């Protein structure tokens, strides 16, 4: 995977094309963020459809490195609430680990993401977020 491939992935994510995003993952890939398992297409689409019904989330890549086995990047995740995302709504989705956000609020977080790669597709992903 190279920078152009990853830019296509980020473009699909920023444009909410969940099928295109999921196609970058190998079958059986480990996709887990903050206690949420997104390892199936349905789980991936369900999570992001719910989240993006309340927020606009975009990734801006600041630093990027890649090899045949690893993609590592540093970027800014920007989340802008388009409607209130309440603690109750999060709880109903089993997402108690996420913080509520009110319409109009903007959060920016520095994110470090590592993807393991095989045959040009992601096999696992891990990330750490630090407030920007």
TrEMBL record:
Location of the SnoaL-like domain: 7-124
InterPro entries hit by this protein: NTF2-like_dom_sf, SnoaL-like
Query: Pfam families from the entry?
Result: SnoaL_2 (PF12680)
Q: What is this protein called?
A: SnoaL-like domain-containing protein
* Residues in coiled coil: none
């Amino acid at each position: 995977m190279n920078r152009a491939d990853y830019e296509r992935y980020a473009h699909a994510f920023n444009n909410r094309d969940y099928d295109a995003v999921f196609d970058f993952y190998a079958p059986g890939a480990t996709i887990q963020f903050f206690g949420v398992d997104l390892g199936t297409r349905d789980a991936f689409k369900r999570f992001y459809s719910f989240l993006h019904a309340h927020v606009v989330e975009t990734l801006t890549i600041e630093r990027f490195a890649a090899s045949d086995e690893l993609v590592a990047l540093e970027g800014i995740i920007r989340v802008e609430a388009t409607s209130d995302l309440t603690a109750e709504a999060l709880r109903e989705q089993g997402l108690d680990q996420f913080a509520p956000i009110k319409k109009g609020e903007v959060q920016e977080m520095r994110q470090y993401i590592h993807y393991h790669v095989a045959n040009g597709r992601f096999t696992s992903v891990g990330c750490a977020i630090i407030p920007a």
